[in-house]
Design the sequence.
């Protein structure tokens, strides 16, 4: 996908329910993340910067291994922690009960190679900490993916045979979330109501992410950049990369949501994040039925029936401690938005 | 989607590993299904017709309600049974341990309207027979969908507000399966190793379905035509229609598969069919890893890693007694096929 | 447990709602099972004998390996099929919509040793056909358990260290079921609505099992005797033995049940049989709430609340294609039975 | 169960691997909990008291509703938060990588009545936040349970019919846990690796609980006393009571465990805490196999086989955000402990 096209599109769209500053006029908050200042939990922490609604945040993320894996001979034990997070960013005016809207303006891979890894105890079809088995674990493995910025690709190179293939890049942010409700603090490998390690390719240029605000300022964290990822992230990693990130944060006052949501010009999308996948799906679809009912005016039963005919399901990952299902409907199937 | 385009494409493709008769020269077996001859289980039964490998089967399916629902005032109690099946068809030369390949040549909606229904005890976000709850059931509801053949659409009309919208048609066969292994006979509402009620939009023109042969002749059954369906079929029904069906059946001697598979020009696709969705996904991906390994030569671990970067997941339904996940990879990411 | 004590108790009890012939006067139907006549599916089949309500059936079961495993050097490949079933027995007067009640009068281990086996692809904490993983399978293993009839024990002997220990016997029938509804035929390794491979230690002397009747005569099958088993049957086998079996079958006319139930002097017990365990539990408890409501007169919500305070849960197995949860309540916590 | 018997038994037992001060000589740390000082997350917080290994902690817990429900007309909205926690207690000498052992010496119901509640969105067979459905919720309901200290019972009184019955008390602590690893802070309604809302009747007099230490001092929290509870806690509550609590805390230096464990004179017990129940069971049994292997010397496969013959499973709750399975084996089936 051509990012410039989407940036142009974004300049043209004006989603009706949110006031946004003009891109050209927007204040830009710059913050340079380093391993010295990263966090490993979503929760209360001293903000690294403050953003006013409509500001553009220009920052970067370090890869999920803390940049520790650079050669074929490196091992996962060299990573100091999983998913180091840039932030938190304090969003001025965001109060519990509000929603913050994040527009992904630009995501660029920030280095010459990505990393894929088979980590014993992590993956959808090998035993894990939460689906343990007595069998011998799969061996640890590292794959390096050369990044080709011009071609917009990363290259998979097989270990056990002579084969390589280019994969188109679709840069997105694997970890994006806020401080959880109720005084909780959650690990950077966990996705849940507060967002977090959703590994959702929807967290990319052209889309808006909505997150519930649970504490004053919201406290936004980002990390775990991906150059590309398959549905389910089944072996436990994407093409893991550092990212340069430009995004805009807006506050929707007085609108409470229970789970993360995405939106773009064409679709509304509700995330359900739990285990098993069955329950993640149930959360996503009850949220989407509720969204259609409240914003588009269909009755719950009409919305349910319509989704049975036209919904899309994206199972983003089944490898983190919670699983993520995103239920979607194309807006062309909906009545005009009520407000 | 324009069916003629795909028919043309099919004439051009020649998947290398299966011998197929020329379409033009093919023998056509015609069979007219009626409610007098339908079956409600996949299992041993007197064949209604015999097909030679390469023959074209020209037949029809009755809708999942046995055609009983025609007016808004009709009730689900009027349906005599769920998913009446056309068949079985005996495929000459198919023996246990073989695989049958089914090319979907033409699927046409065979009537003026489709039916959607909310059946208490059926659905992804209401209690069911297998996820029962103490709450009052949702009310039974029927939606009728006028079919517009020229426009290739069916129309959703809301019950509780003035709203209607056209949905593009994508006709496919919800139920397609063979007699199960081990002398089992399974209800027409169940999908499993033998195929069955997979509710897979992949069972449509342009694709090939592979099913394991468990008994002499395979004994192919089809039914439950859909004009269109959302991922997950969440409220329990698609746009339910009778279909006119043309498909071609081929036998792949000596190739044993454990679960249904799909293929088209661009993709190989492995189905996993069980509960919870987690396990359906595990089945689909272990099958797909095995398929890539045996036919394309990547090691299991390389295949696993590659899928983590480029796989697609289609959760076709989460409402039948077993759930269906189809794991896919684009062939452009694979080495040349070995055989 | 001393079987004679229970036989005595049974002679004393007379559950009020079922007419039973006096044990002393009862007609005894004898049937000797052999491998030549066993079945491997629950479904329509020519009855091997007919039983009138109140008759005592005196028969035997062959072990789950068909008696093929007798020495340490034997392998699972030597078993011709899993869970050979004795039967079916046609119960006179049993019609669809009725319930049959089975009193277990006497179960005796019918041989000098039992067998335990680790079968790759079977078990709760190793990959299986329905929870597959890429890891190397566990190795196949056979343990033999000498039976000591006088001491009422079987001996576990460790393979990898010098250790042995005696396990008290609790003989029960792992497989007991009837022909399924809707013309289905199900494998002898599957438990479901029709009973089947429930691996429930509740299927033992002192208890009554209720099964729904789906076809005329019910068609009762039994097999898969166990000398003892742990909750969950986690490694995939119990102490597998042939049994001598004496049981009495009664018909409860016009009483329809949806899932198997057990009862003894002290408890009523509802079985839920599906996947995941969560759903098996939901089935068991909604059944038990319904039973309490209809037979003991508590409202659904009072029954639900009371169960939250005093219920017992028995997870009998989590290794077969469906899992089994039995929800129980002691009758001392219930109002007098209404009928 | 007579608590004095167990206190006596505890005086007699001396589990060989842990040094414990003599009960008679033990220092007693007294702490009076009030709603002013309760916590609602397991995590870093200023200790309310410090305990030396071997000390006896004499304290109390407030009921899960914060004592807000006292009359039939009270509503759940009156509770300020769920499961207010007493603590944290700093255990001297406990360092990350150690284990703390908690002996339950005395638990006494601390008030004249208990409370049961049906809270919409909480329960095993009604929709919840994590298994949501579109159906109307069950109504909120409160049941009050008069406590009879002399008879050691609490009385269930039906709402919808004239029926009451006495339930024997088995007082235990529903919430007991330490600060989680990795800087997380978890809600008092969640059980997980750190213990927490396990709702395990095993947390009672006569048993020892082992918890992993993740931060200096461990930071022990307790709350959510129960007078009695059914397996599964299916409707979402036990007989909820305030408790007077006496327990002794010991530190086992250098012994790391991954999940909570229980032990008494007769049994070792491993807890698995996650969703679905299938995975909770897998965790519990892999932990128990590992425990048997390391402390009793059986090989993993021998331990697995033996558990398949003699294990006990206790599903304590299926209503909290994670579910709890405790896998047990009687020590009489094990070789002598190695150390």
Sequence:
């Amino acid at each position: 996908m051509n990012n410039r096209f989407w940036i142009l599109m974004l300049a043209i769209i004006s989603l009706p329910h949110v006031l946004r500053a003009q891109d050209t006029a927007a204040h830009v908050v710059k913050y340079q993340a380093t391993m010295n200042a990263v966090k490993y939990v979503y929760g209360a922490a001293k903000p690294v910067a403050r953003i006013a609604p409509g500001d553009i945040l220009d920052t970067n993320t370090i890869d999920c291994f803390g940049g520790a894996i650079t050669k074929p001979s490196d091992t996962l034990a060299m990573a100091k922690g999983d998913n180091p997070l840039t932030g938190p960013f304090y969003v001025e005016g965001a109060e519990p009960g509000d929603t913050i809207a994040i527009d992904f303006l630009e995501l660029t891979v920030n280095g010459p190679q990505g990393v894929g890894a088979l980590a014993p105890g992590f993956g959808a079809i090998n035993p894990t900490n939460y689906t343990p088995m007595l069998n011998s674990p799969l061996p640890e493995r590292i794959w390096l993916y050369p990044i080709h910025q011009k071609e917009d690709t990363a290259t998979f190179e097989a270990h056990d045979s002579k084969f390589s293939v280019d994969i188109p890049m679709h840069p997105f942010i694997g970890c994006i979330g806020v401080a959880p409700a109720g005084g909780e603090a959650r690990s950077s490998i966990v996705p849940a109501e507060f967002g977090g390690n959703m590994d959702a390719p929807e967290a990319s240029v052209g889309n808006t992410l909505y997150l519930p605000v649970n504490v004053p300022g919201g406290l936004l964290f980002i990390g775990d950049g991906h150059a590309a990822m398959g549905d389910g992230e089944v072996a436990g990693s994407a093409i893991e990369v550092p990212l340069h990130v430009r995004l805009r944060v807006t506050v929707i006052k007085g609108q409470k949501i229970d789970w993360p949501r995405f939106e773009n010009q064409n679709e509304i999308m509700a995330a359900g994040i739990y285990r098993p996948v069955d329950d993640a799906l149930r959360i996503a679809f009850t949220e989407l039925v509720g969204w259609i009912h409240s914003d588009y005016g269909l009755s719950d039963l009409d919305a349910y029936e319509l989704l049975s005919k036209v919904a899309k399901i994206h199972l983003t990952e089944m490898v983190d401690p919670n699983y993520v299902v995103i239920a979607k409907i194309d807006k062309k199937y909906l009545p005009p938005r009520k407000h």
